[in-house]
Amino acid sequence: MRKKLISVMLSVAMTASLLAGCGSEPAQESKPQETTEAAPEQAEGQEEAAEPEAAQPEEAPADNGELPILGAGIYSSTDNFNSYIAKSITGASDGVFQVNVDDGQMDQATQLNQIDTALAKGAVAICVSVVDITAAPAIIQKCQDAGDVPIIFFNKEITDKDVVASYDNLYQVTSTGGDYGAAIQGQMIVDYWNAHPEMDKNGDGKLQMINVMGDPGHTASQPRADYVESTITDAGIGIEVLERDTGMWDTAKAKEKMDAWVSKYGDEIEAVVCANDAMALGVLQSVEAAGFNLEGTDSEQYIPIIGIDALPEMLEKIESGEVIGSVLQDASTQGKVIVAIANNVSQGKDALDGLDFELDTDGSKAVRVPYAAITADNVDVAAANYTE
Ligand code: BGC
Ligand code: CA
């Protein structure tokens, strides 16, 4: 346990130091362009207009209208995790880019139109989490036609290496490992099982679990479902999977499915493993409505639930013990890295200039930001990810 905690803390410290390299630099680099122009809005203002020359170049530029345009989009604003990346992109773009993160509304045609519009406005780079990964070639074509505009795919990794190789100006920003955080999640279940013998409610030495999967069309869904199970069984714990089904990454859908399962299995359920926090929160709503998880982890009426992402709304539930934990997927760092890469490549610099990250050598051209285990012992680590 202690060893594990130390390694988590180390990896957190590492992430923090990696971050130190990318948090503030883009804002400073882009500054020279904007400060040269007059600031129409401020000129009309009162106090500030008196001493434009004296304003320190470190501060926000006079007029965002002078900044280059970053075309940015997420596949859907209903996706909590993507919304946090969007927030980070917006924050990191302050003083660097004009950006308005578009909502693809789960519709590829809508997202393609948004990309057309951004390119028509002269976007110097495009960054998107695609609605449908098979649309990548069409997006690449648009960027190419607009004059080799750089593109950064994030969150939904383009796994077709030929597509990735087809465009030099393409980068990806995702998280570490082909298991998409599920090995960490599986290990957390193993640790919990070892520390809480009462988890084996029926005493049969096996874990009766429900595996709530993400959208089957998403790169991370199958690996998360598979690796969490194999990590548990590799640790010598037998499992009986009561249900393995998709909640489509979505709180309401996961709740709906869990409503049926909790009434079918009730006390037989020894764990609910969710491929993301949005679904874990839906599952929690369902089990609480059925009278579980209202009185702490030691109560007989407790169903251990775990997620992935470590969203702020999940951290409260981890702290209160309503769920056992989550795996931090670092939306904040991902957003900063996306903006830094866009800033670098649009100025003809090396994509990773000033960043302590590398591109994966597996042909994905991906920067992979590390995952980290989050339990009640270290929620502050994940919380720090959302303060700015
Ligand atoms: C996240 C999910 C999210 C999905 C959408 C995954 O990496 O863990 O929360 O719904 O990406 O693309
Ligand atoms: Ca059991």
Number of discrete helical segments: 14
Task: Please state roughly what percent of the residues sit in beta strands, choosing from under 5%, 5-15%, 15-25%, 25-35%, 35-45% or over 45%.
Answer: 5-15%
- How many beta strands in the DSSP annotation? 13
Quaternary: single chain
Low-confidence stretches: 1-64
Principal-axis shape equals elongated
Largest sheet: 7 strands, parallel
Question: Mean pLDDT, as a whole number?
Answer: 87
Helical proportion, percent range: 40-55%
Give the helices and strands as they follow along the chain.
HHHEHEEHEHEHEHEHEHEHEHEHEEH
Write the layout of secondary structure elements.
Blueprint: H1 2-20, H2 25-35, H3 40-44, E1 69-74, H4 80-93, E2 98-99, E3 102-103, H5 108-120, E4 125-128, H6 136-145, E5 151-154, H7 161-165, E6 170-175, H8 182-195, E7 206-213, H9 221-234, E8 238-246, H10 251-265, E9 271-274, H11 277-289, E10 305-306, H12 312-319, E11 326-328, H13 331-346, E12 366-369, E13 372-374, H14 379-384
Parallel strand pairs: 1-2, 1-3, 1-4, 4-5, 5-6, 6-12, 7-8, 7-9, 9-10
Antiparallel strand pairs: 11-13
Beta-D-glucopyranose binds at residues 79, 81-82, 129, 155-156, 218, 220, 249, 276, 278, 308-309, 329.
